[in-house]
Amino acid sequence: MNKFDKLSGIAAPLPLINIDTDMIIPKQFLKTIKRSGLGVNLFDEMRYDDDRNEIPDFVLNKPQYRDAQIIVAGDNFGCGSSREHAPWAIADFGITCVIAPSYADIFYSNCFKNGILPIALPQEQVDVLMKDAEKGANARIEIDLEAQTITSSDGEVFTFEVDAFKKHCLMNGLDDIGLTMEKAASIDSFEASASQARPWV
Amino acid sequence: MSPKTLYDKIWDAHVAHEADDGTTLLYIDRHLVHEVTSPQAFEGLRMTGRKVRAPEKTIAVPDHNVPTTLDRANAETMTEDSRIQVEALDTNAKEFGLHYYPVSDVRQGIVHIVGPEQGWTLPGMTVVCGDSHTATHGAFGALAHGIGTSEVEHVLATQTLIQKKSKNFKVEITGKLTPGVTAKDITMHVIGETGTAGGTGYVIEYCGEAIRDLSMEGRMTVCNMAIEGGARAGLIAPDEKTFEYCMGRPHAPKGAQWEAALAWWKTLYSDDDAHWDLVLTIDAANIAPSVTWGTSPEDVLPITAAVPAAKDFKGGKVDAAKRSLEYMGLTEGMALTDIKIDTVFIGSCTNGRIEDLRAAAAILKGKKIKDGMRAMIVPGSGLVRAQAEKEGLADIFKDAGFEWRLAGCSMCLAMNPDQLAPGERCAATSNRNFEGRQGRGGRTHLMSPAMAAAAAITGKLTDVREMM
Ligand code: SF4
Fold it and tell me: B195 alpha carbon to ligand 1 midpoint, in Å?
């Protein structure tokens, strides 16, 4: 998993509440055998018309937001199903941070498993950053995970909360597997003694 | 030493690391892999440059998607999506060096039938698979349960699983079963008693005379449906029957290692004064041939009963029952034996083993299925199929009018072309009767193989005891 430390990036404004996992990645893309490559279908129904042409008005289709690394959105982001395809699509597009007033539970924890930092801020602060995001490519938002701060393009600083353990994992690029691998010595020694005790396994 | 349950003993033998809060890295002895829940896990390994830690303990077999028609070697019988998943498993198994049984191999079959058959599943092991019916392997006194795709990747990479221990639930079936009553009836009856959430948070150990009397095949049927009662896993203590079943299997230990294994396996039982968090005792004599009427596995009744009324239930179940009855197209108060069926499916990891086919054949011998009935038998593995042909069972099925298929999950979950059409009603030996499980709008009644065979002959749900 990629490490998340500091990020200075363009933020795409998506001022909608209840952005659900079907909007993030519609059902027809779930039969895939991959978790990469879903970025082209991120927000598919909002992004393309029936003939698969880009809808020019949709934020991620606008030239100034094509390289966005941050999404600023409304309440209850990521509600719906527990499928990991939603964070997979977001990460594959290149988004590594979402800012919103609140998140659906499972989506929130799925983000951390996929190298995405979901930041929850009070509505007024999200409003400020939403305005900032609307300025386009000239307005970079800065995020410092270590210090737990967000700096707007005008230099306004907000602090945010994040679980200490989740922060540790994200900063060190540790997913569950990475964490378990830190205990490789225990697994090695278990395996050694088990193969003595139960050599037939 | 303080007394322990069988679950405690297996758990303790597999703790690779334990944190202060009890979060445990449990070492996994066998990892079974199929084509539907594994592709993203292997891709994850590739993306992070990780390897499969113990390929020699990892067994792959395609089953969920594969067509079961005789022409399946022709790739065109598979839909594009299915073909891609099966091909991905092929590639992953080869690239990561796993034990692999491709579609063309006679040993191919449903993952939970292949594992025990090949001697991969042995007493005292921890067994996982990206499939909820992994509980089946508990019949050997192995701790076996299903996992999700991120956990599949975790096991591939580390050969461990992050776990917290469940509680101990003893289900004792005392006395002897009456004629016509089988392992499937036991397990369905238990779910009828506990409900689908009754086992949540527990590992169930099934014990008692009626369980001891079951063959290994029957014990697998019982454990298979532990998950339908919400339990993390189901277990049965190994005994002489278990050892006899394992002996000589391709991947079972031999010689001195067999002796060493046997010595340990014989210690795998719950101590007399072990602590149980929950106990349920059922008299085997009270279990009748059972069927489901609704769309949850807990909607179980003896075949002699009538369709219930929604108002007979309490709380949220009233609305659920109403919805079930409507979906199933049933009127309250009608005799279960008046329910007409048009399809029979005998197979799945619940009832696709040789003993199940023998039980069906005993009823079908010299008989014909009802006119217009669609009936299929899908053996659980290529070896089960071969054995049934050797014993002459296949001829009995074909003469009766059944389709005799190749091995796979088939109409258990209808991911391959074997599906019910909307409104079709099926007597099925599988384990789930959820809405749409066997095809959109399809109606499923779960029952034992003998009961399904009886229904094929009469064209309605039937008390098999009248045919014996
Ligand atoms: S037979 Fe049915 S329950 Fe068993 S593994 Fe296949 S799909 Fe799952």
Answer: 21
